[in-house]
Amino acid sequence: MTNLLETDRLIIRSWIPERDAEQAFAIYSDPEVTYFLGNGSRVTSIESQRQRLVENIERSQRRNNGTGSWAIVEKEATTIVGTILLKQLPDKDGLPTQDYEVGWHLRRASWGKGYATEAARGILSYGFNVLNLPVIYAVVNPENHASIRVTQR
Which InterPro entries match (predicted)? Predict the structure, then answer.
C-alpha cells in the first residue's frame, strides 16, 4: 500500500483492487454518487469494480506522470470514503493536453463532512508542488451544487 499524502483527517493512498473492490463498489454502485459522472460510471458487481480498479492502475502506470486516482481513507475509522483523482484532460481528439483536472467522488455517508475539500486541497498541493503543474481545473456539472461549493473553498 502506497500513501500519496496525508491531511489532518485523511490518507490519500493507492487503490488495492483485491482489498478495496467491495468498498469501491459501495461507492460506484450508488446512483446518487454516479448521477453526475455520466454513462458507464456505475458498476454492477464487485468483480467489475475490481477490474475497473486494475484498469485504472494500469493506465496510471502507463502514463507514468504522477497522475491517477487514489482512495480517500478516513484515518480514524480506516474506511474508504471516496476517490480523489488528478488526470490530464484530453483534447477534442482524445489526445492528452497540458491541462489537468482534479475530481472527487465520495460515498453518500461521507457527504457534507468536508472530506472532498480536504482531499482536493491535498491533491492540489501535490499537483502544484510535487508535479509542478501550471494549472489544474475542476470540471463540474453546473447542477452539482455540492461540488461547486468544494471548488469555491
Answer: Acyl_CoA_acyltransferase (IPR016181), GNAT_dom (IPR000182), N-acetyltransferase (IPR051531)
Cα dihedral 76, 150, 1, 4 in deg (nearest 10): -110
117-147 residue pLDDT tens: 999 999 999 999 999 999 999 988 778 788 8
Structural domains in the chain (count): 1
Structural domain of 93: 3-152
Say if CB 43 and CB 21 are below 8 A apart: no
- The count of other CB atoms within 10 Å of the CB of residue 130 is 11
- Predicted TM-score (pTM) of the model is 0.90
Q: For helices 46-63 and 17-28, give the axis angle rounded to 10 degrees.
A: 110
Helix (H) or strand (E) holding 54: helix 46-63
Q: What is the pLDDT of residues 70-120, one digit of tens each?
A: 999 999 988 999 999 999 998 999 888 899 999 999 999 999 999 999 999
